[in-house]
C-alpha cells in the first residue's frame, strides 16, 4: 500500500493558520454495525476520509433542509427562513419574483419526484431496450429465461398469447409475444395519447380515484418533463396544482417505469424465489479474488455472475494464486443478483468506501445511482481497480477504468472485467483486514413466491394472509424500505423500526438498503421470528416457514409491494382499496430523490407513509399540512415525519390499528375452517 497516497486523502487543514482541524467520526456513534465500526477505525488509522467523516465536517443548510431555498433562476438563490419566533399572523415571506414558501417548497418537492422518477424510469427504459433486443434475437447473450412470467404480464399489455389457426387455438411463439410486449412497453415512455397501460393493474377503486382526480399519467417522460416546465420561474404557482403534477409523475414511476423494469427483468433474468445467502463485509474472502458489484442496473451484473461461476475463470483465478472468485454486491445491483443467484451482500450504501478499505477488494464494478465519487479517491490508496460501465455514469479521476456496456458484447465485457480483477489479485498489499461479521438471510421473495408459500402451486391465495390479519395473528403489513443517510446513525433507524414492528405482530416487507440492513442484523431468517416477533406473527412464520421480514428486492422492486397489496385487496375481507388495508409504509433513513418519488407513489396509492431524518417541507407549514393531512382525504394516503425510530414505528402501528377498527377486526377471533362453498360465497360478495 502506498502510504503517501493514503495520507493525501485527508485535507491538511491542520497546517493552515487559524484553520480548525478536521473532525473524525466516532465509529460507535456513526453506526450500530460492528463491521462498519471496525472499518471506520481502520480508515482513521490509515488517514483515509470517508462519508462518515465528511458528515461531521459539513453541516446541512438549515434553509435548504426546510425546503424554502429557490435557485430556479439567476436572481436567486432566494432564501426564505422561518422567523426565529415562528410565524405570527400572515406569512409575508416572498422570493424576488414573489414566490411564497408554499410555492417554493412544492416546486422543490416535485422536482425531487421528477429526479427520482427519471432515475427509476430511465433504468426501466434501458431494461426494455435490452428486452427488445433479446426478443428480436439481436443479441446472443440475453434470452427469455422466464416464459411463464412473460405469459402472465402479456395480457396487461393487451398482447394475445394464443392465436387462432385454421379454426384452432394455438399457443403463440414466446419470442413473437416478447417482441409485441417489448414494443408496447417502450411505447409507454413517449406515446402521444392515452394513459399508462399498467394503471389497470391497480384495484378498481384506486383507478377510479386517480381518474376522478385527473392524475392518471399519460406517458412516463411527459409527466417528468411537465414538472420541469411547471417549476420554471413564472409558471405554476399553486402548491396544490404543483403536487397534483408530482402525483402524476410518481404514479408513472411506481405503476409505470419501475413496475415494467421489475417485470421485464424477471422475464429476462428469472423471477426470484427464496434462497439462502449472507450479508455484510465479512462475506469477502482474503484468499479469493474479490469483485464487488455496486449500483442499480442488473443487465451487466447478470453476465458477471455467470462469468465468475465459469470453470474457465475459476481455473484462471487459481492459476494466479487465488482459491477462487468471491462476488458480492452493494446497494440494489446487489439485491438484484442476490434475489436470483444468492450472491451475498457486501454492504449498504454507506459501506461502499469501507469495502475498498478492507484492502481485499480487487475490483469494484459500478453502473448507475448511489455511487460515491470518492470511491475513486479511496481506490487510489489501495490496489483496487474501479471500473465504470455505463455511458451516463463516468468519473473524472484518472485511476478509473471505463468499460462501456454493450449488449451485443455483454459476455465479452464481463469476461474482460473479471479478468482485470483476477490479474489484480497479486497486486494486493499484505495489510488486509476483513471484518468477521456477516448475517445469514433468506431473500428473493416476490408476489409469486409469497403466493406459493401461502398455499402451494394449486392452492396459493393471499386470503391466507388476509385471514391471519382478520383473526389477529398478524396485526398488519408494513413496507420498510430505502437508503442510508450519513446524517443519522447508520442502520439504527432501519433496525429499530423493523424490530418494533415485528415485536407488535406487524409483518414487514422490505427492499433496498433496508433489506441489506435487516440481513446484516439476522432478521431475514425464519428462526429470527421466535426471537424478535410477537406471538401471533411468530406462529404464522413458524407455520408457513418464512422470515418475519420478507426481502422483495431492489428500489424498482417496490412495485412488488404495490402488487402484493393489490393481491390482498383481490383476496377479499379487507376492503376494496389499498387505502382500506391495515398497512403502512416507511423509509427510516432515506436520502435520495428516488425515495421521495417512491414515498409519493405509495401515498397516491393510499398508503400512510412515514419518513425519518427530515423532509424538505417544514419551512412551508401550509404546504406541509396539505401533504401530511389533506392528501388523505383525496387518495387515502398521506405523508408523515418522525425522527425517533420507535415513535416512527408506533405511528405506523397506530395507523394499522385505525384501519383494523374501520374494518371491524380490532378484536382477535377464533380461526374458522372454511369449506369451498363458504369460500365461493366470500369471493362473490
In short:
The chain has 685 residues and is an alpha/beta fold.
What would your notes on this structure say?
It is a single chain. Strands 8-7-6-9-10-11 form a six-stranded parallel beta sheet, sandwiched between helices. It has a six-stranded parallel beta sheet with strand order 15-14-13-16-17-18, sandwiched between helices. The radius of gyration is 25 Å and the shape is globular. It has 29 helices and 18 strands. With 685 residues, the chain is of the alpha/beta class. α27 (621-635) links the parallel β17 (609-611) and β18. α6 packs across α26, α6 (101-135) crosses α27 and α10 runs antiparallel to α11 (239-269). It folds into four domains: 3-62, no CATH class; 101-269, Substrate Binding Domain Of Dnak, Chain:A, Domain 2 (Up-down Bundle), CATH 1.20.1270.30; 281-427, Rossmann fold (3-Layer(aba) Sandwich); 439-684, Rossmann fold (3-Layer(aba) Sandwich).
List keywords for this structure.
685 residues, alpha/beta, Substrate Binding Domain Of Dnak, Chain:A, Domain 2, Rossmann fold, 4 domains, six-stranded parallel beta sheet, 18 strands, globular, disordered N terminus
Amino acid at each position: 500500500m502506498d502510504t503517501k497516497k493514503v495520507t493525501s486523502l485527508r485535507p491538511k487543514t491542520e497546517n493552515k493558520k487559524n484553520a480548525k482541524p478536521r473532525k473524525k467520526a466516532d465509529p460507535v456513534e456513526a453506526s450500530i454495525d460492528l463491521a462498519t465500526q471496525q472499518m471506520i477505525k481502520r480508515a482513521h488509522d490509515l488517514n483515509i476520509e470517508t462519508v462518515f467523516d465528511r458528515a461531521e465536517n459539513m453541516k446541512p443548510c438549515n434553509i435548504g433542509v426546510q425546503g424554502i431555498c429557490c435557485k430556479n433562476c439567476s436572481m436567486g438563490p432566494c432564501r426564505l427562513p422561518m422567523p426565529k419566533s415562528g410565524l405570527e399572523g400572515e406569512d409575508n415571506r416572498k422570493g424576488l419574483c414573489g414566490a411564497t414558501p408554499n410555492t417554493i417548497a412544492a416546486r422543490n418537492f416535485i422536482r425531487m419526484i421528477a429526479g427520482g422518477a427519471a432515475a427509476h424510469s430511465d433504468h426501466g427504459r434501458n431494461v426494455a431496450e435490452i428486452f427488445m433486443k433479446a426478443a428480436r434475437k439481436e443479441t446472443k447473450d440475453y434470452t427469455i429465461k422466464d416464459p411463464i412470467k412473460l405469459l402472465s404480464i402479456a395480457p396487461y399489455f393487451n398482447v394475445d398469447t394464443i392465436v387462432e389457426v385454421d379454426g384452432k387455438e394455438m399457443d403463440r411463439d414466446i419470442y413473437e409475444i416478447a417482441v409485441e410486449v417489448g414494443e408496447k412497453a417502450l411505447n409507454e415512455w413517449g406515446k402521444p395519447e392515452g394513459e399508462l397501460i399498467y394503471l389497470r393493474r391497480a384495484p378498481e377503486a384506486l383507478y377510479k380515484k386517480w381518474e376522478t382526480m385527473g392524475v392518471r399519467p399519460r406517458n412516463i417522460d411527459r409527466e417528468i418533463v411537465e414538472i420541469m416546465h411547471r417549476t420554471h420561474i413564472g409558471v405554476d404557482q399553486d402548491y396544490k396544482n404543483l403536487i397534483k403534477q408530482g402525483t402524476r409523475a410518481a404514479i408513472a414511476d411506481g405503476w409505470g417505469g419501475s413496475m415494467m423494469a421489475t417485470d421485464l427483468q424477471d422475464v429476462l433474468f428469472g423471477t426470484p424465489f427464496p434462497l439462502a445467502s449472507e450479508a455484510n463485509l465479512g462475506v469477502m474472502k482474503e484468499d479469493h479474488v474479490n469483485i464487488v458489484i455496486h449500483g442499480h442496473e442488473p443487465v451487466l451484473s447478470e453476465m458477471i455472475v455467470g462469468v465468475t461461476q465459469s470453470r474457465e475463470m475459476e481455473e484462471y483465478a487459481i492459476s494466479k494464486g487465488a482459491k477462487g472468485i468471491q462476488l458480492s454486491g452493494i446497494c440494489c445491483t446487489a439485491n438484484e443478483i442476490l434475489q436470483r443467484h444468492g450472491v451475498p451482500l457486501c454492504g449498504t450504501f454507506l459501506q461502499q468506501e469501507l469495502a475498498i478499505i478492507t484492502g481485499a477488494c480487487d475490483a469494484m464494478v459500478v453502473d448507475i445511482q448511489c455511487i460515491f465519487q470518492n470511491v475513486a479517491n479511496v481506490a487510489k490508496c489501495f490496489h483496487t481497480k474501479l471500473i465504470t460501465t455505463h455511458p451516463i455514469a463516468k468519473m473524472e479521476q484518472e485511476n478509473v477504468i471505463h468499460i462501456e456496456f454493450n449488449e451485443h458484447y455483454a459476455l465479452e465485457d464481463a469476461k474482460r472485467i473479471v479478468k482485470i480483477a483476477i490479474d489484480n489479485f497479486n497486486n494486493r498489499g499484505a495489510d488486509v483486514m476483513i471484518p468477521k461479521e456477516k448475517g445469514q438471510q433468506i431473500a428473493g421473495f416476490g408476489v409469486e413466491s409469497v403466493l406459493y408459500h401461502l398455499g402451494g402451486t394449486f392452492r396459493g391465495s393471499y386470503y391466507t394472509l388476509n385471514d391471519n390479519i382478520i383473526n389477529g395473528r398478524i396485526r398488519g403489513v408494513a413496507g420498510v424500505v430505502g437508503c442510508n443517510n450519513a446524517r443519522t446513525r447508520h442502520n439504527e433507524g432501519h433496525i429499530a423500526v423493523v424490530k418494533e414492528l415485528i415485536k407488535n405482530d406487524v409483518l414487514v416487507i422490505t427492499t433496498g438498503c433496508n433489506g441489506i440492513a435487516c440481513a446484516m442484523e439476522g432478521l431475514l431468517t425464519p428462526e429470527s421470528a421466535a426471537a424478535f416477533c410477537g406471538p401471533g406473527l411468530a406462529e404464522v412464520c413458524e407455520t408457513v416457514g418464512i422470515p418475519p421480514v420478507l426481502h422483495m428486492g431492489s428500489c424498482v422492486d417496490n412495485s412488488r409491494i404495490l402488487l402484493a397489496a393489490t393481491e390482498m385487496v383481490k383476496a377479499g375481507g379487507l376492503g376494496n382499496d389499498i387505502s382500506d388495508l391495515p398497512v403502512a409504509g416507511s423509509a427510516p433513513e432515506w436520502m435520495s430523490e428516488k425515495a421521495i418519488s417512491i414515498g409519493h407513489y405509495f401515498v397516491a396509492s393510499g398508503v400512510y407513509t412515514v419518513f425519518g431524518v427530515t423532509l424538505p417541507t417544514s419551512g412551508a407549514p401550509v404546504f406541509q399540512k396539505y401533504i401530511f393531512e389533506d392528501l388523505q382525504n383525496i387518495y387515502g394516503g398521506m405523508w408523515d415525519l418522525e425522527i425517533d425510530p420507535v415513535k416512527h414505528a408506533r405511528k405506523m402501528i397506530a395507523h394499522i390499528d385505525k384501519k383494523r377498527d374501520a374494518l371491524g377486526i380490532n378484536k382477535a377471533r377464533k380461526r374458522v375452517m372454511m369449506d369451498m362453498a363458504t369460500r365461493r360465497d366470500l369471493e362473490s360478495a
